[in-house]
Amino acid sequence: MPQGSIRSHLPALLLCMLAAMFLATLPHWLGLAHWHRPIWIADHDEMFYLAIVGQAYDNHPWRLTEPMLVNGLQNPYPWLQMIPGIVLAKAAGLGPLAVGLIWRAMGAAFISAMYYLLTYRITRIKALAVCLTVAICADVGVLYSMPLLRQIWLVVSFLSGHGQGFLATYPKIAPSWRIVTPTLSLGYLLLFIGLLGRALEQFKWQRTIAAGLACGLLFYAYFYFVMAVGLGLFLNMLIDAKRRWTYFFTGLIGLICGLPNVLSQSALSMSTSSDWLHRWDMFVTIPRTSELLIPKVAILYSCLCLVWCLLRARQLLYLWVFAFSALLLLNHQVLTSLQIQNYHWLYTIGPVHAVLLVALIWNEMVRRPSWKRPYLAAVYVMTPVIFLSGLWLRRIEATQTQESQTILHDLEHYEQMRFSPEGKALPLVPNAFVAGQQDFVDFASVLENQRPLLHYTVLSSPSIDDREWDERAALSGYLQATPRADFAAEQRLGLEINLPRSADIRASRLAGRLAAFDQISADPRPWLGRYPVRYVAVKPNGIPAEFAVKLSMQPLQRGPYWDLWRLP
Hints:
The protein is mainly alpha-helical. The chain has three domains: about 1-185 and about 370-400, no CATH class; about 220-245 and about 255-365, no CATH class; about 420-565, no CATH class. Helix content is about 65%, strand content about 5%. It contains 25 helices and seven strands. It has a five-stranded mixed sheet with strand order 4-3-5-7-6, sandwiched between helices. Strands 1-2 form a two-stranded antiparallel ribbon. Helix 20 links the parallel strand 3 (about 435) and strand 4 (about 450). Helix 3 (about 45-60) packs across helix 4 and helix 8 (about 185-200) packs antiparallel against helix 9. It is globular, with a radius of gyration of 26 Å.
């Protein structure tokens, strides 16, 4: 905590938090003109999380479960990240779509507050800490260890008309505000860094315990931060003998605090199928020298910071070590032969490098007082430019990214159909199974408390093995009256996307799905008993009359985007 009364820092903290919250939530406010409420959905990953949100919001706001199951089995996602936003939305009656806005606002407030406390602790100048915090939050290059450079590059690209490649798929411009990570987890890493730095200044048990507790929180916030911090503490113990016991006790206290979560996750893994691991790229065995991640700019940045620390500021080397640990973990498969979505360690490197750069530059200002005034003037002048250009880039990302716009169009179609007077007169039975067109199923699971037969979340579900995944896919295709050849082509393409590593696994899954499809086609009744689908959404006029008669399907609602059928 900065010196002086916390009350004296409240205006500065509030200014930082408001600036960061505006940056993070700008896409939602831009939606007001069209939706008359602040709605924005970034990509299909966010739809994935909203499915989890929808079930929790409607049925158990204090608990996370898997959206495709009615029996409420445990969900492996971090309670600490997700539940506070769900509970706030439920308490205010805002609906599940408001959770994205709340998450971004909460995450931005936490992150900016931590950046302010860190930068103030380094500089002891409130105005400078505010400017540095706002600049870091607005700079779209921080996460890539490219402060200022990526911001300038993107601004020039869009002004020259060459930036459309950044809009062709999912949002890529401002990844710092992606949910759930890093927006809902980064604040905990910054909190740990701040408290550890305080403990390293002078060994006091209360400071070391505070740093240990912050380390323990990481176990409940984000797995990848835990691993980077754990390796960083170990390496710091090896190279920093004077402060070795501070690192040791910080890690020990953190491990004790995090042990209940480790045991809980281990019990979950042991009690469920391991099939989901290869579907979700978790603990998959790969060749040691394959899939290497070489972030050239971050590596160059790290080398320059190392030389700077060794020559001018050895007391800051501990910070460099945490970023270096994450760089090592990016390619841990060289030792472990495992792939566990290794790219997630990038979320550690950039923010730690940003704090380290602030500290290194200020260390030079202390050494050379004559440089301080020009430095302060440059920061005060550049901060509004960085903030405004960051807002401009965020606006482009929000309004022109193709995946975001496609999802929002689907949402508009769903609301026009289901929440029109006709749709409201035909409510869906809560917690019923829904199958069919994925865009309809996605929003039914979020907005009408439905359980999807087939969904993106099945990929990461420990509760569903490959056999059940195949059966769900086959039944979903059958209920849409899909011809077998078309079903085979669709599944072949989908498996190439979802299981790109192994042709043998894809072939096995395709064979399983075709076998299940043939069995369902011969007699669907046992399968509908196993998976009691109540509703099927198909393209308009997508169900032949004879097929509907065979399954005793009744049309519930016909629309320009989907036909909704009801099974007995």
